[in-house]
From TrEMBL:
Domain Thioredoxin: 61-226
Protein name listed in UniProt: SCO family protein
UniProt keyword annotations, A-Z: Copper
Organism: Kordia aestuariivivens
Protein family: Belongs to the SCO1/2 family.
Claim: Secreted is one of the keywords in the record: no
InterPro entries assigned to the protein according to its UniProt record, in alphabetical order: SCO1/SenC (IPR003782), Thioredoxin-like_sf (IPR036249), Thioredoxin_domain (IPR013766)
Gene3D superfamilies: Glutaredoxin
Lineage: Bacteria, Pseudomonadati, Bacteroidota, Flavobacteriia, Flavobacteriales
């Protein structure tokens, strides 16, 4: 073998080593990104989102803050209640179909969750319209079709404005304006996604505009599935 052939062989080997290292690092980065931060997720009960570490099945956990009963209507005209989410883990947010700002990106990121858990019947998505007087069933249906939303996986709901705002502010705690007293006349607008477990208890809050936060949410959902 002449010196040119040897040099070519050495260069080819170096390239293969570098490519292998890059692939290994990329794989490890993805793995780290998809790992949950903890073995068991904390519980939350108020707007400051102070974590509470409770033993599953304990009396403290059983009596902890829980999303109350509700009754809303989805894009198919079906009544959606807390019973819809019996034995389900779900992610919820608040949006409106005519929103020109953050909502399209939130919907796109929620769609990432839909695709990730498309075949997993244990995981559901719930988006509340904060302009229910505009977002009728037919409007939500059209929006769902335009955004590729699957009705058996992702419920877009409308209903009484007072109920939706009460759920958002007093039970999901999606707004970040701590200490400010608000009424139904004050518009509810937030980019937060909230993770709810099978007991209708809050287990996490995430920035719905941030793809890294969405990947963390995916990891935390998988952690929650192991817990249940």
């Amino acid at each position: 073998m002449n010196w040119k052939a040897k040099l070519y062989k050495q260069n080819k080997l170096c390239v293969l080593v570098i490519v292998s290292l890059l692939l290994f690092n990329c794989k490890n980065d993805t793995r780290k990104q998809l790992d949950s931060r903890v073995t068991n997720l904390p519980f939350y009960k108020e707007a400051s989102f102070t974590p509470h570490w409770l033993e599953s099945g304990s009396e403290a956990q059983k009596t902890f803050h829980q999303i109350p009963a509700f009754s809303l209507t989805n894009q198919e005209g079906e009544t959606i209640t807390e019973a819809t989410f019996k034995d389900k883990i779900y992610v919820t947010d608040f949006f409106f179909t005519t929103c020109p700002g953050i909502c399209p990106k939130m919907t796109a990121n929620m769609n990432i969750l839909q695709q990730e858990f498309k075949t997993d019947a244990e995981i559901l998505l719930l988006s509340h319209s904060v302009t229910p007087e505009i977002d009728s069933v037919s409007v939500l249906k059209s929006y769902a079709e335009n955004k590729g939303i699957e009705s058996n996986k992702w419920h877009l709901v409308t209903g009484e404005r007072s109920q939706i705002y009460d759920l958002g502010r007093n039970h999901y705690f999606v707004e970040e304006d701590l200490g400010e007293t608000k009424t139904n006349d004050d518009f509810l607008h937030t980019e937060n996604f909230v993770l709810i477990d099978k007991n209708r208890q809050i287990r996490g809050i995430y920035n719905g505009l941030n793809k890294t936060a969405v990947q963390q949410l995916i990891a935390d959902i998988k952690t929650l599935q192991l817990e249940n």
